[in-house]
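If it is no trouble, can you show me the amino acids of a protein and the tokens describing how it folds?
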Amino acid sequence: MKKTAALLIILFLLAGCGGANEAASVPKTKADTGAGARTKAPHTSSAKEKGDWVRVARVIDGDTFEFMNRGTKEKVRLIGVDTPESAKPGSEAEPFGIEAGNFTKKMIEGKLVRLEFDIQERDKHGRLLCYVYLEDGSMLNTRLLEEGLAAIMTVPPNVRMADNFLQIQRKAREQKKGIWR
């Protein structure tokens, strides 16, 4: 698996995809999507994949991170999951908050991820609401649930994955992982 991933990365670099260090242009609204608004997947592009590939600049906590979009910081909030607080100013970290933040850092900080939207693209704080896919094709949202580092948080209209997330959470809870100990 590691050899395959390394080979794919080398092939990607040899293919001349020099834009991998720049973030994809994420539209402010769906109407802003135009030619060049999306960046192709680094090595796993297929007709079924939708979304923007971006390089994560900084992880804020287990369910929030930033990337640079044409010189501007964009915050992303994971859809459907809620990790314990670890970085809330003026308060102590909640149990497993630091672990969730460290897990997310390990998984995505400095790496390329694919952002996929549901119905609503932004929350009331202006953060992008996304399902976040890793280069190996797995979804960060589900990985946090599997490890017991997040609980489901369903906020309509972004409910496409709610049933799937509930099943994953039930399994983590049965296995007494993370917050379910």
Residues 1-48 have pLDDT under 50 and may be disordered. Helices lie at 2-14, 97-108, 140-146, 162-174.
